[in-house]
Design goal:
- By secondary structure, this protein is α/β, with parallel strands linked by helices.
- It has a single domain, classed as 3-Layer(aba) Sandwich (Rossmann fold), CATH 3.40.50.720.
- Strands 3-4-5 form a 3-stranded parallel β-sheet, with helices on both faces.
- The two termini are about 25 Å apart.
- The structure holds NADP nicotinamide-adenine-dinucleotide phosphate (NAP).
- NADP nicotinamide-adenine-dinucleotide phosphate binds next to strand 4.
């Protein structure tokens, strides 16, 4: 996300835990970094000050309400009118109209119970974080990622408003392109108050159900 944002001429301020600052070494002196947990309200208050857009990665890690704390801090401290773009997975449903394969629901159930046992993962906290975002009056977009894979960019993913749409069936997106979609969403007002479920533009299902030529270039919705 940092690289995509810099390439588009944005000034970038980043927040990551102190132990992770090293991973941003390649961007030293090109971005400002606030070391800290993203659910630390004071860190977020300082980091988002003056920002026109905030890209937030919501992760379900730990058992200390990391996602809800992160989302709430961004909702509370981002300047009024700022574009807020959050990441999560397909398991988040905005309106309950998503249709999931049985295998997907089984995986979610397993993750929920393993998370409760080990306290390493808290899926329900990520769900609550998104509920708060959906209920907010901010200019939000919640980008719902498919399974991710590494590799070079294939281009902007395509999306649908609902999981279960055949265009999403391949359930795979390059990580770098998930990041690209987040950054491009900053200036796409059509995505405000949308929860696009994305899939790689070169995945088999995207190619088979592509709505029109050049669809991925304008962030077109699949269906
Ligand atoms: N991985 C997938 O297959 C997949 C599928 C669908 C959707 N997604 C979504 O894509 C986004 C990115 O997922 P990802 O798999 O790339 O995430 P990730 O590798 O687990 O890490 C993302 C960030 O989470 C922070 N993090 C990791 N472990 C943590 C912990 N124990 N406590 C607090 N923070 C921790 C790290 O922040 P620091 O920078 O502070 O280290 C890291 O940069 C998420 O919103 C996820 O829901 C992922």
């Amino acid at each position: 996300m940092v690289r995509h944002a810099l390439e588009r001429g944005y000034s970038v301020v980043g927040v990551c835990r102190a132990k992770s600052v090293g991973k941003l070494a390649a961007f030293e002196r090109r971005i400002e970094v606030f070391p800290g947990a993203t659910n630390d309200r004071e860190v977020i208050r300082q980091a988002v000050d003056g920002c026109d857009g905030v890209l937030t990665v919501l992760v379900p890690w730990g058992s200390n309400h990391y996602s809800t704390g992160t989302a709430q801090a961004v909702l509370d401290f981002a300047r009024p009118g700022a574009r807020l773009v959050f990441s999560c997975g397909w398991h988040i449903s905005r309106d309950g109209r998503d249709v999931y394969p049985r295998s997907f629901k089984r995986q979610e159930w397993l993750a929920r119970w393993l998370g409760r046992l080990t306290r390493l993962v808290d899926i329900d906290d990520q769900i609550e974080a998104c509920r708060r975002i959906f209920a907010s009056s901010t200019r939000w977009t919640v980008v719902r990622g498919s399974d991710l894979e590494e590799g070079d960019s294939q281009g902007l993913p395509v999306w649908s408003g609902h999981v279960g749409d055949p265009i999403l069936a391949s359930n795979i997106t390059r990580r770098v392109d998930f990041a690209l979609f987040m950054v491009e969403a900053l200036k796409n007002d059509k995505l405000i108050h949308e929860a696009p479920a994305i899939v790689g533009c070169c995945s088999a299902s995207a190619v088979a159900h592509r709505p029109s030529a050049g669809h991925s270039g304008d962030m077109a919705e699949g269906h």
